[in-house]
From TrEMBL:
Residue ranges of every copy of the Rhodanese domain listed in the record: 16-134, 167-272
PROSITE patterns, alphabetized: RHODANESE_1 (PS00380), RHODANESE_3 (PS50206)
Keyword tags: Repeat, Transferase
Entries under PANTHER family matching the protein: SULFURTRANSFERASE, THIOSULFATE SULFERTANSFERASE
Pfam families named in the record: Rhodanese
Gene Ontology MF terms: thiosulfate-cyanide sulfurtransferase activity
Gene3D superfamilies associated with the record: Rhodanese-like domain
Alphabetized InterPro entries for the sequence: Rhodanese-like_dom (IPR001763), Rhodanese-like_dom_sf (IPR036873), Thiosulphate_STrfase_CS (IPR001307), TST/MPST-like (IPR045078)
Region (Disordered): 264-284
SMART domains: RHOD
Name by which UniProt lists this protein: Sulfurtransferase
Amino acid sequence: MPLLITPTDLSDLLATDARVRLLDVRWRLDRPDGHPQYLEGHLPGAVYVDLDHELARHGEPHEGRHPLPTRDALQDAARRWGLDEGDVVVIYDDFQSFAAARAWWLLSTSGVADVRVLDGGLRGWVAAGLPVETGDVRPPRGSVVLTGLEGPVASIDDAAAWPARGVLLDVRAPERYRGETEPLDPRAGHIPGAVNLPTTSHVAAGRFLHPDALAASFAAAGAVPGVPVAAYCGSGITAAHTALAGALAGVEVTVFPGSWSAWSNSPGRDVATGPLPDGDAAPR
């Protein structure tokens, strides 16, 4: 199944397939509640998805800022979105597909067969001259059955041991990786052995790079087919974006959902600083 869809192709698909379901995941660190912006304009028929409450759950600090939802909670949310078996699910946001990728990763690893991300997001749709509508969309309740996460997921212990068996990617901004700043979590730095590959490098003007360029970016960090690759970010959102970029490049990426927010809140975990994977490690 294709992983991305362009605005023009989505417009054509909507005109010919009644089983396309659109999900709008507006979420950013500086604006976590995107519902007001959704109400002001969204793709026709798109249902708003609340990332903080439907694609995550409230947890303890050591679980990170965005612990995974339970299967039952995610299934209940997906049914609220109107999803049924056999639907083509297209997800978008308004900021480089970071939030959309979280929904893509959760649904595609929970048994939904055809999940795609709108490449370019809302901005690409509008730039193509395609229509938007205002107000809330409340579809009939769906009946989709989810399996629970079947895809590759790493625990905190897996993340600690990963550099010895493969490549662990820290996909945050370089200054956070180096430990020069940490605006959100209690400690600054990175997991010892992790290699920095910011997921922002995988997009340009809101769209994913060509698969060959993505593969070259991963290869430069040592992440090539056949090598076990895992990724973490601040709280498990942009790590899913790296998993999507990896899938486009032919590299399977395991996600550590707790990410740095879980690591930095867990006693006994070493922290490395500086530009090198092992850096200067300091105990928690």
